[in-house]
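Students often ask what a holo structure prediction actually looks like on paper. The answer is less mysterious than it sounds. You provide the chain, you provide the ligand, and the output is a string of discrete structure tokens encoding the 3D arrangement of the protein together with zinc ion.
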Amino acid sequence: MEWTRSDTIALANNCCVQCHGIGLHLGRGGRLNPCNCVLRAVFRACLSRFRHCATKEKHMSRVSLEFIPGRERNLTWGRKDEEYMADFILVSRRHLEDGEYRIFKYHFLLGADWKLCCRQLKIDRGNFFHAVYRIQQKLGRVFRELEPYSLFPLDEYFHGPSRLTPRKPVRPAEVIGLPAEVFNRFNRLSWARSA
Ligand SMILES: [Zn+2]
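The corresponding structure tokens follow.
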């Protein structure tokens, strides 16, 4: 995906020395890349929603009717909170290396602090925090760029796209309430008369 200022401006850190609050920097070939402060903000927002879903009272989880985009325009029932938690963990598992996933699991999912993680994983403090930043940036980008349905923006994940999809074109026969074959015959006749 192409990152634009409207994707990043609200997420960027005003004090960031790399992007100065814009959230973008120029990469190779003049391409705009999201700043690491934006990627970490995306990750934090997704993690916070995961914790909210995981800790809220179970009777508050609701079944909701969802619209499936596509030609058929079907509706289906789903449990969004549970789907989101499963997606959050599965996507992270798929995109992190084994060592990174262990840190992700202990620190972000199970809530172990840096001292416990360093002792259990036998790494020093510097390497631990480097890995934490790397995980946040890697997953922040994946959560936003995931195709066809990204985890972020969260409101689009939970409530569907906010942009209106183009309406199905209406055929002229439907406008005047005629069956298509009658309309086409009539249309051919009027063309023959005018020729
Ligand atoms: Zn920045």
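The pocket of zinc ion is lined by residues 12-13, 16, 18-19, 23, 35, 37 (CB under 6 Å).
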